[in-house]
Write a structure and sequence with these properties.
Strand content: 25-35%
Distance between the termini: 41 Å
Number of helices: 10
Shape: globular
Number of strands: 11
Length: about 280
Amino acid sequence: VALVVIETKYQAILPSPVIAAESVADPNASIRVSIRPPAAIELIRPRLTAEGLPAWAADRVLPYEGAIFFTPQFGARQFGLRVSLNEQRLGPIIATAPEKAGIGKLYPFVTWAGNVMSSGRRGELSLDGTVELPALGAEAIEKYWGEVYQLKRPVLEGGHLLEAVVDNRDGSLFGLLATLDSNNAPRLGLPLPDLAKTLLPIATLRVTGDLESQDVLKLNFVVDCRPESEETAVSTTDFQLGMVLGAATKELKEKHGVELKGVRHRDGTQIVGEYTLSGFQKLL
């Protein structure tokens, strides 16, 4: 009887099914970010056991996957936001984590639908919200991108510890950066009109991250520019990307003792980068 009660109330005994994050995404989500904690279990387990969780339990309670999706609603000058989690066990307890963490105060620029994650089926938790797009950002999108309809969005490939895929054909990447910039994120270093011109050639962006060792993270990215982009526009985007990576390298080294190194190259309208982040545990 005790086991039945524990399972019914806390979902602590039987594992939940594995549910791909893409199955809970809005088809029009233009920005998709995923993390798969089991791919870093050897890195995470010592931290959990240091907090008192038995080593054998870490493998059994770690969620299969977590994801964040941004869906542009530029007519209303906002993004729709969904945070999803494919938990392995303890769903009812995990669902209350946003409330306990005070998510409203942590992210005041998000209008959350609630402070507890909802569940459509076992193994699937989600929390929705909206993020207002700043006026200057909305105006820049209207000016440089206009209205774009019926885009077939790129999706998460899966199989990586970290993965992010962005569709900027409607200005979504610019819109998100402008929104973060207006909400005390690290400054972008470019006025919004200049940032818009720099990002305009970008069609899609995909970034993946996987552990090479306990303290080395391999990062790969592919930037696909619009086929019709002029050579000078792609060159400018490539140059600005190099400036951003250079600034990030300096910041990581000087403030955190973390080394970012790698190479990038252009192949027509495509920019490809292969980097490693060494000593990244200092950032955790």
